[in-house]
Specification:
This protein has 414 residues and is of the alpha+beta class. The protein has helices spanning 14-67, 105-114, 147-226, 232-259, 271-288, 307-324, 377-387, and strands spanning 78-84, 92-94, 116-124, 127-135, 139-145, 267-270, 292-297, 302-305, 328-336, 339-346, 365-366, 372-373, 391-395, 404-411. Among the domains are: 22-151, Beta-Lactamase (2-Layer Sandwich), CATH 3.30.450; 266-411, Heat Shock Protein 90, CATH 3.30.565.
Amino acid sequence: MTSPGVRGRAPRTPEQVELAHASFRLGVLSAAVVLAAVLGVALVALLGARHALNAEADSRRQQAARSIDDVHDASSDLWVTVVDRDRGHGAQQSSSDLPDGLPDTTALAAAQTEGGEVQSVVSTPFGRVAVLTVARDDRVVQVAVDPTQNREISERIASAVLLAGAVGVVLAGVAGAWLGRRAVRPLADSLARQRRFVADASHELRTPLTLLSTRVQLLGRHLDTQVPDLPTAVRDDVRGLYGDANALAGLFDDLLLAADDREVRPEPVDVAATARAVVDAASAVAASRRRTLHCTGDRSAVAVASLSPVRRAVTALVDNAIEHAEQAVVVDVVRDGAVVRVRVIDDGPGIAEGAQVFERFASGGTGRDGRKHYGLGLALVAEIAGKYHGRVTAGARDDRERGAQLTLELPAPR
C-alpha cells in the first residue's frame, strides 16, 4: 500500500508496452537506415576525395618535372632531385628533407639513358609514393609529392562525415521513435478500446446468463417433481437448453480471460491435482457422450503459474479431447526436469498436418453435439502457456496409435 498523499505508479497496459516496443524498434530501424546511408556516403566521399587528391598530385608532379630547374624552386611539399646532364654525375641536387627511398636511382638512370618519362613507385617512411622522372634537354628531374598533406585532408573529410553521420543517426533514432509512437498510438488506443468493450460486454452478459441458467435448472427440477408424465422430448430440450446456457457462459469466460490485460504474479500450482479436479468435473459430460475419461501420471506436479488460468487451460484441452474422441480420453501429468507436462490424449480422427488449431476461429463449426463452436478454447490455452513462459503443441500420439495428443508444458520451480 502507498502512504497517504503518495500515488503509486500505475502499471503499464499491454498496449502501452507494445507501443513502447514498436516505437523503440522504429527508432532503431530509422537509425540503422541512416547509419547505412551515412556509411555509403562516407565511402563515396572518401573514394572521390582520394581520387581527386591523387589526380591533383599527379598534375603537380607533371608540372614540376617540366618547369623546375633547381631544387630550391620547389614548394615544401615536393621532393625533387635534379641532375644536370651537361655537368656529369656530380651535378645532382636533392631536396634537403628527402626521405629514405628517394631518389629512385634506377628511374634516374633509365631516364638519362633512354630519355622520356619514367613512372615508378617507391617505399618511404611515409608510405608508398608515386615518382615521376622526366628527361629534358639538359636535365633529368625527379619529383614526388609528400603524401602527408593529402592524408591529413582525407582524415579531416572522414572525421567531418562521421561526425555528421553520428549526429544524423542519433537524430534519426529519436525522430523515428517519436514518429513511430505517434503513428502507432491510434492503433494501440483502438486495441485498448476493443479490449475494454469485450471485457465490459462479457462481464455484463454473465449476470443475466447466470440467472437464465439457474432458471432453466429450476424449471427442470419443477418439471421432474410436478409433471411426472412430461414427454421425454421436452425434458431433453430443457436439458439441452441448460447445456447451451452453460456453454455460452464458458464462452464469455473465455472472452473475459482473453481481455484480461493484468499481469498475474506466478505462484506454485499443483497441476496434477488441478487436472484430477478437471477430470472429475468433466466425467459426467464424458459419460453422457459415452467416452471414458481418466487421469494418469504423478500424484503431484507443481508448476509456476496461477491456479485459475491453469484450470481453464486443462479444461479447454479436456473439452476438446472429449469432443473429438471416439471412446477414451487420457490426461497424463508428469514433471520432466524443468517442466511440468500435461498430455491430453484421445482416440479420435487426429489432427491434420499443418492445421492451425491454436489460432482463433481455426476450428469453428458445428460439433458432434450440434452446437456452434468458435475455436477460442485452444487459442486461449496458447495464450495462457505464453503468459507463463510455457508452450502448447498438438500432433500425433507418442504411442503412434490413432488419435491426437495435445501437450501443455509449464515451467517447474527451480
